[in-house]
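Hi V.,

Quick status before I head out on leave. The structure for the redesign project is tokenized and pasted below; the design run finished overnight.
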């Protein structure tokens, strides 16, 4: 190992973009503190990336489905079962290969979805760190399900659920939802299994920051060696200490950057509703239609990301009519640049944690339309705890109607309460920048992590 690097970390993300990006950004922070980094991800994912980061080394392991990934497996259960078997094996081979080439690994930082990585670390005598890509509040809920304190899914009788470490009771509609999904039980099992061997790891890293979740972090810290290291977004949007860190550098989709930014440059300040449901969410055709009408009726300019796989849910003529005066529909966009743009006034979001953290870091108020998993809990925090947005509620058929969407957009963009929401958003933006800057809570935690690694290696 070269003497300029003090220690060597192998990073193992779950192979979807929303899980890789935070770990990738954490890796860049570690690199800036002279830790050598290798990211191990699946052959299938590497084959299908439109953009790959040049700043870190990437090695391939196998999930057992090199030609089709998760889809080739047929079912989620088949996928994770085979990934454990083939992944453990190919990860071990990679660690051996690195050791033989004079570049031995000291530590594995792994996504707890892949909790078998702990066994691999133990086999090679390496230290391990679990890296939770969701926030601490959501981790806390899964932990209490793991312990049997909370029943999952909650029944209709559970009007309010009291969770230790939470400042307020939460309703059944605020807990992570897997109901009505095929294989829901096995997905819940995987979420809960993140905690099955957490007592064997040396660190628990959380993609959040202390000031954002003080109470729940203090509570969880009594059980696990927790360190918050977020927000994990490119440094140029926060503390600007890593000058070449402007983008994640990794993308499954090709962003229509020029179209988006040219269009935004011609819109008035704070006039645009930016709409995106991330890289995975699939809306029903009926929901797409209601959303389209809600945007049109709100009478605001809008930039709407509709992935090419979702396009067929809206007719071409409908999109043309919809966008004639007020809007732009694109297949993918450079989200950070859009959120940072002065024309953007609010973010209509599914409330995935990466999108939520980006909005917090860039001070953009939110209208939330959570779909499943942690998004419902994030939406609760956005509205009631951090007070930086509102939630457009579903009706009894599970559809958010156009009237609810229009009302929420107008509230944030035009009404008096919207001003207060924007003030809160500014406050959190300031805090998000400070925590990763020198001496901030997340920066100190990363420093401490690095110095312990150095001692070990």
């Amino acid at each position: 190992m070269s003497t300029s690097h003090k220690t060597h970390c192998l990073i193992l993300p779950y192979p979807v973009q929303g899980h890789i990006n935070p770990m990738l950004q954490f890796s860049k922070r570690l690199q800036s503190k002279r830790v050598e980094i290798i990211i191990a991800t699946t052959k299938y994912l590497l084959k299908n990336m439109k953009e790959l980061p040049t700043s870190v080394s990437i090695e391939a392991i196998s999930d057992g489905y090199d030609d089709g990934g998760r889809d080739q497996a047929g079912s989620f259960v088949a996928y994770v079962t085979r990934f454990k078997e083939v992944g453990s094996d190919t990860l071990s081979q990679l660690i051996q290969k690195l050791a033989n080439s004079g570049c031995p690994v000291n530590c594995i930082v792994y996504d707890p979805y892949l909790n078998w990585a702990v066994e691999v670390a133990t086999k090679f005598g390496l230290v391990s760190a679990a890296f939770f890509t969701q926030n601490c509040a959501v981790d806390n809920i899964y932990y209490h399900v793991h312990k049997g304190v909370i029943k999952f899914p909650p029944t209709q009788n559970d009007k309010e659920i009291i969770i230790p470490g939470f400042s307020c009771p939460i309703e059944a509609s605020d807990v992570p939802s897997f109901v009505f999904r095929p294989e829901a039980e096995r997905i819940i099992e995987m979420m809960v299994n993140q905690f099955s061997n957490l007592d064997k790891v040396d660190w628990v890293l959380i993609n959040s920051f202390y000031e954002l979740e003080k109470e729940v972090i203090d509570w969880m810290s009594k059980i696990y060696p927790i360190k918050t290291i977020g927000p994990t977004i490119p440094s140029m949007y926060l503390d600007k200490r890593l000058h070449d860190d402007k983008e994640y550098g990794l993308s499954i989709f090709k962003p229509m950057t020029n179209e988006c930014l040219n269009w935004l440059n011609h819109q008035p300040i704070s006039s645009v509703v930016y709409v995106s449901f991330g890289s995975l969410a699939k809306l029903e055709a009926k929901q797409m239609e209601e959303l389209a009408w809600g945007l049109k009726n709100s009478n605001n300019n809008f930039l709407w990301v509709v992935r090419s796989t979702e396009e067929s849910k809206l007719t071409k003529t409908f999109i043309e009519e919809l966008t004639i005066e007020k809007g732009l529909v694109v297949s993918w966009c450079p989200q950070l640049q859009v959120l940072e743009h002065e024309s953007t006034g609010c973010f209509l979001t599914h409330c995935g944690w990466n999108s939520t953290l980006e909005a917090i870091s860039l001070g953009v108020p939110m209208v939330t339309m959570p779909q499943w998993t942690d998004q419902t809990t994030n939406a609760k925090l956005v509205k009631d705890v951090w007070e930086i947005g509102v939630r457009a509620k579903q009706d009894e058929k599970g559809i958010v109607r156009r009237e609810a969407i229009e009302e929420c957009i107008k509230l944030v963009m035009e009404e008096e309460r919207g001003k207060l929401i924007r003030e809160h958003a500014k406050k959190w933006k300031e805090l998000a920048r400070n925590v990763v800057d020198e001496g901030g809570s997340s920066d100190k935690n990363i420093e401490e992590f690095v110095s312990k690694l150095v001692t070990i290696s």
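Above is the designed sequence. The chain has a mean pLDDT of 93.

G. will cover questions while I'm gone.

Best,
W.
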